[in-house]
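Lab channel / #folding
Pinned by the channel admin:
"Please post every new chain as: sequence first, then the structure tokens as a reply. Keep commentary short and put observations after the output so the thread stays searchable."

First post following the new format, from NK:
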Amino acid sequence: MIVTVTLNPALDLTYTVDALIPHGTHRVAAVAERPGGKGLNVAAVLHALGEPVLATGLLGGTTGGRVTALLRENGVPSAFTPIAGETRRTVAVADPADATGFWEPGPRITEGEWAAFVSHYRGLLGRASVVALSGSLPPGIPPDGYAVLIRLAAIAGVRTVLDTSGDPLRHGLAAGPDLAKPNALELSALLAATDEHQSAPDSDLADAGRALAMGARAVVVSRGPRGLLALSGEGAWRGVPPERLVGNPTGAGDACVAALARGLRDKTPWPDLLADAVALSAAAVAAPIAGAVDQDTYHRLRPTVRVETA
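Reply from TO:
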């Protein structure tokens, strides 16, 4: 089973408009309400693919209750630790070309709530083959929070995928996740902040190499329409989508994490794993809301993704 961890979940609202005009008034054509946060998007994608998954994290208040109810309605198994604070909301405004996001910061987590979650998480590891740790940390959780969870998973023999940014990414890399999946901007910003960033002919490959040196066993850098770059001790590869899709890219990185977690569980060879992640990411762009994939697009693109040695 794949366990997804979302420490800063949200009630995710997507507004669809004909065109987004700054400072203008918009008539919303459609409203979608979903359990949100990167880890819950990963769980939704895995569930849609028929994969055994369990979503966990922290939920509280009326908004948290609504997230729990939506997960139940959608059939996504979950086991969350309750908190006193109100779970945040996120709003994505999607037009035909792209999406604009507004993310609330999330409630402050107490030391007791964090300790309760860590204890709960330890109990789940006995049922897990892979853990996907995704998204920001809410106020109150120490910046090495993901590092703590990665080390506990390693002790239990469970593989980990890390998708975060900033200090949580820096601490998480040092804990030795099996796979880290920053996007190119997140990784570049981290290395600049740690005085590790230098210009290079292929900066994404150079940056991935520095992330590997910081402790990750493998790194996949998402590069938007340019696809994915993977680097591990086995080699380096680039995966490129066969066509550029227009749509909502909000959940593309989360679909990528879903594919990577599944591939780690199945011990899929790197070129095939990267091709699958590229196709599933593109299929998420073709879906109207984060946490969903267009399965027809996925099956159409999967055989045609080009993966080359970097």
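NK: The mean pLDDT is 92.
TO: also worth noting, Residues 64 and 87 are 5 Å apart (CA to CA).
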